[in-house]
Structures are given as structure tokens and as C-alpha cells.
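seq:
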Amino acid sequence: MLTLLFDGLAYGMLLFILSCGLAVTLGLMNFINLAHGAFAMAGGYITVVLTNNWGVPFLLSLPIAFVAAAVLGLLLERTLYVRMYEKGHLDQVLFSIGIVFVAVAGIDYVMGSQQQILNLPQFMRGRVDVFGVGVGIYRAFLIVVCGLLAVALQLILTHTRFGSRLRASVDDRRVARGVGIRVNVIFAVTFAVGSGLAGLGGALGAEILGLDPTFPLKFMVYFLIVVSVGGTTSMLGPLYASILLGIADVMAKYYVPVLGGFVIYIVLVVVLVLRPQGLFSRMN
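struct:
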């Protein structure tokens, strides 16, 4: 039981780091970026190539995946996404879906359609026994890294000048520009960081979730479920939602294997019926 709880917590934290970039762009920038998974896939492939083919240490490949995905996000934001900020949500959805299919076709052409296997370093494999609980070393690493990132993101958004300027830019871009805030720069940096976080999530999740060209399509619904259940007014909502969904998914697949894969959708439907704005968002 405790081992399942631990595995569910690790899975939930992984969902959070994969989804928090979408929570940033959707919740704080009011932009529906369904291509979020494409940046996660890019981070995963970069890590696999660096680690398996070039012999780069796994721990070093993680920040490289973050930076590479952030740079890719910044380039796309400055050339393509910036033209869509003032468009309606339907236009944004169609545009980002197009990005997803381009990314899937591009990766399939370059890397092939086979599943990629990430070679973890030896010291991250296996389990250790902690007070009778089997703790996976890599899953413990995921919990620590994702927990630290969650705390850092919340502090940046709520206790820094950048976070204040970002919230002001989202609330009213005209007024924000009037008081001297460089809204375009704020949005570009925010989008790049969100893309970088997606890339880092893809790098961390490649070993557990698997990696192939259909990654953005397979996990798009999971990213949306996390953001929908948790709400988008802060980073704490998606964090709590990720943990709840991760534990529910792992527990259900073990105890009720017949329904296991559907439990996460049942939770989504129940939450949206009871609280359409998200489980951890405040009512207007």
C-alpha cells in the first residue's frame, strides 16, 4: 500500500512538471497552447540522444534539455505564437494542433517511429527498503526535483517583481504597457520558461512514460486534465491535482485493473461537474 502511494506520488509529481508549463501559458497568459507536449517530446529526445548516443551524463542532460526546449519555445514565440495572442481561443487551438502534427511528423522522419529507451545511470536504478517500504531510487529523485521546482515556481510567481509584472500584464495589457511594463518581453520569457519546463518534464519522464513520435498526442489529454482539475489561478492547484490524479491512477490500476485506465477520466468529469473552475481555484 505505502509503496503504491509512493509510486503514485512520483507519477503525480511527474505529471505536474509536464503540465505546469501549460498551466503558466493557459492560466497566466490566457493562451491555449495544445502543442505543449511537443516541447516535452523535444526535451525527451534531446536527453535520449545526449545520454545514449553521445555519452553525456544523465544529470547534465537535464538542464540541457530545459535550455534547448526554452530556446525552441522562445524562437517559436517570437516568430509564430506572438501573432496569435490577440486571436480567439479556437484559432489558438487550431494553430497549436497544427504545431503538434508538424512536430510528430518531423520527429518520425528524423528519429523513426520506434520507442526510445533511455539508459539511466546505474546509481538511479533499483529500489531501496525504507522502513519496510520499497522506494524506487529514480522515483524518489523525481519527487525531490519536482517538489523543489514547484516551490521555486510558486515563490517566483508570488514573491518577485517578475511575477507581479506578469500578473499585471495578464490582467490588463494596455494599462501594463502604460506604466512601463514591457509586456512582450514578459510574455516571451514566460513562454520560454514554460517550454523549458515541458522539455525538462519530457526528459524526466522518458524512462517512465516511454518516448515515441506520438508522445504529444498521447499525453495531451493528461496535461489538460491536470490543469482543468487543479485550476489555473496559481501553481499550487495543478500541483495538488497532479498528486491526486497520480495516486488515483496508480491505485486504480493496481486494485481495479478493469477500470484502472478510466479512473482519471472519472475524476475529471466529477470535478468539472462540481467545480467547473477547477478543484483548487477560488469561486469568482
